[in-house]
Specification:
heterodimer, A: mainly beta, Immunoglobulin-like, five-stranded antiparallel beta sheet, 10% helix, globular, B: 428 residues, mainly alpha, Cytochrome Bc1 Complex, Chain D, domain 2, two-stranded antiparallel ribbon, 35% helix, 4% strand
Chain lengths: 152, 428
């Protein structure tokens, strides 16, 4: 199973402590000057989709995930009962909820790689802090979304 | 060097609590956390990413092209009135900018001149990012009616008459220009545009390719202009090494306090991040309209359309890149309210020497810049990303003191002879 390659300082973070960690990162990395919102506590790296149709994970070709550098991600997608999903229409968006802005690029899922893997090109984050990325998935299993939180 | 090591040294010396490094009369409290030290490292030149190849310019690292580009950069014959060169606004003695709110070429422009050092690292050029390479950027002013005010046909003739041998050594044979008029280009000037339209498509392509190569030569020169080491960089080096500061590396108490604000409560580092202190992206920060009446300026929302359709962009016929090399262009955000009146985050290197500030020089001092960011007024149009923060006059003074530590000499390319060889090897 692919996993999100979070920054080293996050690898021992438990969901219980995630709210404090995300808040601390937000404070340390500079969000107060921009619009604020309640931080999300959810930093799981393997996620079920919102309606439990899929299970998804992502990995970047550069670890830890860098700031200001274009990167390519691989999205791995299974149905909730574990069948790899190769044929799907997938879009990606995201942004910084605390700043009220989106991603600095328009990443796209450009092709299926087989075995449930999908290539995501054009991913970039231009500043540190709390980022949210969301995949909208349409396949024969149904329409659903899956959301990941990142602390950079 | 780790904090724990420093702490052991201090305990060994009988000091508990506050660690201090003293150089002469400069006292600096060494109280950065590990996370803060990582942040400081990310802002220092030791984190400047190695300059990758420019896939769109196969001559980018050709010393002969750089030598030719240097001479073109300073050549006033590349202008409509014979008096304007790149160096007119990118002044060699002023950090390659001009210190004016609006640049003056053959006419007055609507934007502040940007400095050049380090721009080879930037995916987008100009305040609105309407060029995606240094060579494409260099071509914009050359045909701007208010900057150089000339035409690509004119410039091809200048190259043929003044630089033929050197040009052909790098780019190959120049086209036959005997039937090419002195002034022709797809520009606003109706006579030049009409002359251009009378040329065959093949002739147009040949002239445009010479023009692109002029840009690629200038870019090969500009590419070697990098930010130099500042006192802040030496400070970070010493902090990371756990070594005593020298007068060349020490920050005053005010400067260190300003740095703490910069990466902390003042949130400057949100956008001014990385070794060049820019996120290379575009933001609406609600800067006021210029005092003088200028054409409507929508920032990135127009700039992105121009670069996507750019005649000399990364995917153009004049680019040496494969389409897959042009990722920034392929995945650029091309629509949305965030582009309205958004402008590129400028580097803060040498910022203290570079008033006035903002894309049209609207703000005259760093103190006023900080007052603007603290007040976070509504944008003249579009939506400002800022929210107000409280910064006392003393905190603004400390931030300005810190910004002064980011000044350093830029690394200017060495002198070349006409073949591109170093004329004075010792100068390297």
């Amino acid at each position: 199973m692919h996993s999100l390659h979070a920054p080293r300082s996050w690898r021992r973070v438990t969901p219980r402590s995630a709210l404090a960690v995300v808040s601390a990162i937000a404070l340390a990395m500079g969000c107060g000057h921009f619009r604020t919102d309640a931080p999300s506590p959810d930093i799981q790296t393997v996620k079920a989709s919102a309606h439990h149709l899929y299970r998804a994970s992502v990995r970047s070709d550069v670890t830890p995930i860098p700031v200001r550098r274009l990167q390519t991600w691989t999205l791995h997608l299974d149905t909730i009962d574990g069948q790899p999903v190769d044929t799907a229409t997938i879009t990606m968006d995201g942004g910084m909820p605390q700043h009220g802005h989106g991603l600095p690029t328009s990443p796209r899922v450009t092709r299926a790689l087989g075995n449930g893997d999908h290539l995501v090109e054009g991913v970039k984050f231009n500043m540190g802090g709390w980022w949210v990325v969301r995949f909208a998935i349409t396949s024969s299993a149904g329409i659903d979304t899956v959301t990941f939180n990142l602390g950079l | 060097m780790t904090r724990s090591f420093i702490a052991r040294l201090l305990v060994g010396a009988g000091l508990v609590g506050i660690a201090a490094v003293t150089v002469g009369n400069v006292r600096h409290r060494s109280t950065w956390t590990t996370a803060e030290l990582a942040m400081l490292r990310s802002l220092s030149l030791r984190s400047l990413e190695p300059l990758g190849a420019d896939a769109s310019n196969r001559y980018a690292d050709d010393a002969r092209a750089a030598a030719l580009g240097r001479d073109l950069f300073f050549d006033t014959r590349l202008s409509g009135n014979g008096r304007v060169s790149c160096a007119t606004c990118h002044v060699a003695t002023q950090d390659l900018q001009d210190g004016k709110p609006l640049a003056d070429g053959v006419g007055r422009t609507a934007r502040r001149t940007m400095p050049i050092a380090g721009t080879a690292h930037s995916p987008w050029l100009f305040w609105d990012g309407r060029a995606d390479s240094q060579w494409a950027q260099a071509l914009g002013p050359l045909e701007s009616a208010v900057e150089h005010g000339g035409t690509r046909a004119q410039y091809a003739h200048v190259v043929a008459e003044q630089y033929r041998e050197r040009y052909e050594a790098v780019f190959g044979r120049l086209p036959d220009l005997t039937s090419i008029p002195q002034h022709a280009a797809p520009v606003a000037d109706s006579a030049a545009r009409a002359a251009w339209s009378r040329l065959t498509a093949e002739a147009q392509e040949q002239i445009s390719r010479v023009y692109a190569n002029i840009g690629k030569s200038i870019a090969a020169y500009e590419r070697r202009i990098e930010p130099g080491v500042s006192r802040f960089d030496r400070y970070v080096d010493a902090e990371l090494a756990g070594s005593r500061h020298t007068p060349e590396s020490a920050l005053t108490t005010d400067e260190a306090s300003g740095l703490r604000l910069f990466i902390g409560r003042a949130r400057c580092v949100t956008c001014h991040n990385g070794a060049r202190l820019t996120d290379d992206h575009f933001h609406n920060t609600g800067v006021p309209l210029p005092a003088v009446t200028l054409p409507a300026d929508s920032g990135r929302v127009v700039g992105v359309r121009q670069v996507i359709n750019g005649e000399f962009n990364c995917t153009s016929r004049y680019s040496d890149a494969k389409p897959e090399d042009c990722e920034e262009l392929r995945f650029a955000v091309t629509s949305g309210p965030e582009l309205d009146r958004a402008y590129k985050t400028p580097s803060l290197r040498n910022v203290a020497n570079r008033a006035p500030y903002m894309h049209a020089g609207q703000i005259t001092s760093l103190d006023d810049v900080l007052a603007h960011y603290a007040a976070a007024p509504a944008a003249p149009f579009g939506r400002s990303e800022l929210v107000p923060i409280r910064l006392s006059p003393n905190e603004r003074r400390q931030l300005i003191a810190f910004l002064g530590t980011l000044s350093g000499p830029i690394t200017v390319p060495p002198t070349y002879d006409r073949t591109g060889a170093l004329a004075h090897p010792a100068a390297r």
